Amino acid sequence: MVESADLSDEHRAVLLATGFLRQVMKGWYISANPADDQGDSTAWYASFWAFLSGYLGKRFGKRYCLNPEASLLLHTGHTAVPRQVVAVAGRTGAKTLSLPFDTSLLLYQDAKRVPRSRVARRGLQVWPVAEAMCLVGPSFFIEHPREAEIALAMVRDPSELLATLLEGDGMRSAAARLAGALQFVGRSSDAQRIVTDFSAVHSSVRPENPFAIEAPSLAPSRERSPYVLRLRSMWAGWREAVIAQFPAPPGIPVNAGSYLAQVQERYVADAYNSLSIEGYQVTDALIEAVARGDWNPEGDDEQRRARDALAARGYYQAFRAVDLPREFRPLGYLKVAPWWMES
Question: Which residues contact 53 (CB under 8 A, 6 or more apart)?
Answer without folding.
Answer: 1, 122, 123, 124
